[in-house]
Amino acid sequence: MNVREIPCRDLKKVLQKPWVDISRRPWISGDTAYVPVREGYPYTQALPERRRKGRGYQKIGSIIAFHGEKPDEEVISEIINRHNPETVIWYRGHRGVMRIPDINVLYGEISDTIHKESGILYHLNPAAVMFSQGNMEEKRRVAGLVKPGERICDMFAGIGYFTLPMAKAGGFVHAMEINPDAVYYLQKNIRANNLTSQIIVSPGDCRDHITGIYDRIHMGYYDAKQFLPVALQHVRSGTIIHVHGIGYNTREIREHLMTKGVTAALTHRVIKKIGPGKVHTVTDVVIT
Known about the structure:
Largest sheet: 7 strands, mixed
Strand order of the largest sheet: 13-12-11-14-15-17-16
Shape: globular
Number of domains: 3
Number of helices: 7
CATH topology of the largest domain: Rossmann fold
Strand content: 25-35%
Order of helices and strands: EHEEEEEHEEEEHEHEHEEHEHEE
């Protein structure tokens, strides 16, 4: 693990720096903090990996979330002793077009929590709306592409996963969301992050609200390619569309482009593994 050594008193100041590998925790020894460094950035020394053995999990605010198989009592007890969370949940997936979480509460009581990521506050209740930390790097990547003043459409905004980072980067975002619970938290998160002047929210089906021409269209939904014909009615030369999906779906995307007589440059990338033999991907479509 590549790290930079800094005084502990400066730790909070550097955690939002682009060189920090936020997928790993800093290691503190005495008055020195060893901060993990992302690949491609300079570092002061390399340390042996310090990874915890056993089941993986996510920390969502004050809540610990497990994915995959249900954890046993020993694992649950170990996590409670280690983190003293308010709640432990087992996340089994989500249901329907509103992406409603299917969870089982293993410890404590489920309630609203506040999750902080890359300097952004996300209010949410994991029993009502989905939240994936596996998209963290993709949020940072897309926000880094946004130019101040861009007109952006987020067709599947959720609680603001990508809406908030894109707005914070200077974009003016038209956020659309079909789940009323997600809309509630989206509006709350916009206020909490002081982005009311950057975001307009349209509750309901994105196909009923998308309008005009956009500089960037974000489609953060596994079946996003099915909505591509609608999105292509709102582009110009230079518009960038981020089409999320499962697996290598560029062939279907090219078919939609051909049907509409649109030419574009496509770049495909893997975001994260979501199951045996299944990966979450995104294809960047730059209209020419």
